[in-house]
Automatic annotation (TrEMBL):
Matching InterPro entries: Epimerase_deHydtase, NAD(P)-bd_dom_sf
Family: Belongs to the NAD(P)-dependent epimerase/dehydratase family.
Species assigned in the record: Cyanomargarita calcarea GSE-NOS-MK-12-04C
Residue span, NAD-dependent epimerase/dehydratase domain: 6-243
Source organism, top-level taxon: Bacteria
Protein name: NAD-dependent epimerase/dehydratase family protein
Gene3D superfamilies per UniProt: NAD(P)-binding Rossmann-like Domain, UDP-galactose 4-epimerase, domain 1
């Protein structure tokens, strides 16, 4: 691997900071563009400052994005307002970042002859249609402004790739989990919130019966997917599901957490949340054809989270 400079938008966030860490380990130079709205400097605190340029700024501002891209060869575009509820409450404000920000990244990439843009898409583009597992060829039908902006972003990216010569790859992340995920965010999903409650000796709260399931993918496997598509000749112009292909229910997670910690916390059930999708599951065949496969199981990932975040709990492997 050479010493290319890579821009990571949203590099102070949960997923972005893991991408930055791996890029630095692989001797890339990294520039981060982040407005620290949900990202934190502590997420990149362990990474050597020599290898990172940090630009505090907004992806919704084209001149800022152009400045950030100067001298870069590749871009990972992770910056977004990653909250479905926020997008429902403020479709204009979130759209300026989630769609407008991507458009700025694509336009600046064209101007700066960036070699490839890798975009953080989402399984939210599939919407609530119940057929599972989701394949990339299935019709997208997002049901929230967040999902609409993610779909618009990827379609625009493919337009730039097809017509304007900007190489572009979309990774449709399913439910990503791992260290540094913020439990205070409503979008963080069950895992970081459950672990946070266990740290306080509290039982998990489940909306509904707990049989709703998600395809949880560990952040290190998401980073691997990003690195694989960065230069793979068959990746440009395509969208890929990034999920393990395993359905895990919220009750499964509660059971694994109880088993790992030797506790018997009974989940507290509350009214189901309107609009929550019942099941989500990826068909990851397309990404596997590029040599990717998930390495970390939900149980391993949960054990890691507990070990790191829950000080005096004994964790079984
Ligand atoms: N976490 C998941 O399960 C998941 C699933 C699907 C897609 N995604 C996508 O992955 C990406 C990363 O998500 P995450 O979970 O790490 O969330 P995160 O909130 O931790 O990271 C987002 C980062 O973007 C930054 N940001 C937000 N608005 C910005 C703006 N206007 N200008 C510059 N920076 C801005 C934030 O400060 C933060 O550092 C997002 O695009 C998100 O939509 C995440």
């Amino acid at each position: 691997m050479g010493k290319s400079t890579v821009l990571v938008t949203g590099g102070c966030g949960f997923i972005g900071s893991h991408i930055v860490e791996t890029l630095v380990q692989k001797s890339y130079r990294v520039r981060i563009l982040d407005n620290l709205s949900t990202g934190k400097l502590e997420n990149i605190a362990s990474i050597s400052k020599q290898d990172i340029d940090l630009l505090i700024g907004d992806v919704a501002d084209l001149s800022t994005v152009e400045e950030a891209m100067q001298g870069c060869e590749y871009v990972f575009h992770e910056a977004a307002i990653a909250s479905v509820p926020k997008s429902v409450n403020d479709p204009i404000g979130t759209g300026k970042v989630n769609y407008g920000g991507t458009l700025n990244v694509l336009e600046a990439a064209r101007k700066h002859s960036i070699r490839r843009v890798v975009f953080a898409g989402s399984a939210a583009v599939y919407g609530s249609e119940p057929t599972l597992p989701k394949q990339e060829s299935m019709a997208a039908n997002p049901i929230t402004p967040y999902g609409v902006d993610k779909l618009g972003s990827e379609l625009m990216g493919h337009f730039y790739a097809r017509t304007l010569g900007v190489e572009f790859v979309c990774l449709r992340y399913f439910n990503v989990f791992g260290l540094r995920q913020d439990p205070s965010s409503p979008y963080s999903g069950a895992i970081s919130i459950f672990c946070d409650r266990i740290r306080q000796g509290l039982a998990p709260v489940i909306y509904g019966d707990g049989l709703q399931s998600r395809d949880f993918v560990h952040v290190s496997d998401v980073v691997k997917a990003n690195l694989i598509v960065l230069e793979h000749p068959q990746a440009t112009g395509k969208s890929f599901n990034v999920g393990c292909g395993v359905a895990t229910s919220l009750l499964d997670i509660t059971n694994i957490l109880n088993d790992l910690t030797g506790q018997n916390l009974q989940a507290i059930h509350q009214e189901p949340r309107p609009g929550d999708i019942r099941h989500s599951l990826a068909d990851n065949t397309t990404l596997r054809t590029l040599g990717w496969s998930p390495q970390i199981s939900i149980r391993q990932g949960l054990a890691e989270l507990l070990q790191t975040s829950v000080a005096n709990l004994k964790v079984k492997k």
